[in-house]
Amino acid sequence: GHPIGATGAMRLTTLLHEMRRRNAKYGLEAICGGGGLAMCAIVERR
Question: Which residue numbers delimit the Thiolase C-terminal domain (predicted)?
Answer without folding.
Answer: 1-45
